[in-house]
Amino acid sequence: MNIYNVIMAGGGGTRFWPISRQKTPKQLLNLSGVDTLINETIDRVNKLSHKDNLFIVTNKSQRELMKETVDDKCHHNNILSEPIAKNTSAAIGFAAINIMKKYGDGIMCVYPADHYIKLETEFLNSLQKAIEVAQNEDKLVTIGIKPTFISTGYGYININKEKLIGKHGYEVVEFVEKPNFENATKYVNSGEYLWNSGMFVWKVSKILDDFKRYLPKVYEKLNEISEYIGTEKEVEMINKLYKEMPSISVDYGIMERSNEVVVVPGDFGWNDLGSWDVLGSIYPTDEEGNIKRGENVVLDTRDSIIYSEQKLITAVGVKDLIIVSTEDSVMVCPKDRAQDVKHIVEKLKSEEKYTYL
Questions:
Q1: How many whole angstroms from its chain centre is CA 271?
Q2: Cα separation of 299 and 319, whole Å?
């Protein structure tokens, strides 16, 4: 079957504020020092399938910059614009109906745009295994990451190692939301849990059948949109019908409810780059445990992240801090509260300080 790559790239990356903004979210930034996260993702997955089979789902406000950023790596008519964010089920369903309408059935591989992957060959090998299971067993396949440390920032998947599905997959016992430290320790030490990567592989026909079964209200709107793809009313009807679509994640709406989910384990130096405190997966630390980017002078400073786009940052006698400076903003927070940076964005919205969003 044909392989179609779908990259979800509509998020705002609020936990990477202030460098990540609504019009320039983290997937459009060069965090690694090599290329933008979206382009690094494209370069990896295009090794599985031709760029003609690549789709990017983004939002309306980011589409033009997305086109400019990816340039000729993706056909611009395959950059799908959501008029309003409606969570991952809508984004995935929107891509699925476009693929089915334009090309017919095939294997659909879904990836977030903002993951960092160190070992590309191992990553592609894991995907090939997932594709094999999805094609031969007609299952919903997700990639589970072998934990390398105790993390409270990731969701977990409990697998049944005694129940092999196909040659490479394992039966899912349950999905677990981000745990506290005590439970995360138990999960990692048990050897029976994997991190939930948010990467999926399935037949287009299979996921659409499951939308119909588990999320009928979402499916109804997707089905209506499908009728207008390629017509003069396409944009008008997408704008209208998207607003009427329920907002729900594909994890909660389908994956956690289906008994046909299979996990293929992966171990390829993965990190989802969810917040400032994980930059250590990309950048080396100095002898004091600091990660430093841009102009900076520090004294007696340990285990901190110092990130400047333009201005000089100086620090004396601090430990375990994140300090970020941009043209118009400075953000300081303890490393153990990196997940809470998104609440700054919420407060800026509530105070109508839109210039900084």
A1: 10
A2: 11
Q: Give per-residue pLDDT as tens, 232-279.
A: 999 999 999 999 999 999 999 999 999 999 999 999 999 888 889 888
**What residues contact residue 275 under an 8 Å CB cut-off, 6+ apart?**
15, 16, 153, 338, 339, 341
The greatest distance separating any two alpha carbons of the chain, rounded to the nearest whole angstrom, comes to: 64
pLDDT of amino acid 316: 97
End-to-end distance of the chain based on CA atoms, in angstroms? 43
CB 166 within 8 A of CB 289: no
What sign for the dihedral angle of Cα 337, 342, 345, 350?
Answer: negative
Instruction: Report the b/e string of 103-132 with b at 16+ CB within 10 A.
Output: eeebbbbbbbbbbbbeeeeebbebbebbbb
**What average pLDDT does this structure show over 268-293?**
89
* Token couple for 301: 């400073």
Work out the pLDDT band at 281, boundaries 50, 70, 90.
Answer: confident
Residue 155 has phi, psi (to 5 degrees) of -80, 160
**C-alpha 138 chain-centroid distance:** 24
CA distances from 85 to 9, 11, 224, 249 (A): 11, 8, 18, 11
Cα(142)–Cα(153) distance, rounded to whole angstroms? 18
Residue 60 CB coordination number (10 Å) = 16
Q: Which two tokens stand for residue 269?
A: 């130096």
User: What confidence tens digit (pLDDT) does each residue in 131-181 have?
Assistant: 999 999 999 999 999 998 888 888 999 999 999 999 999 999 999 998 999
Residues in the chain, overall count: 357
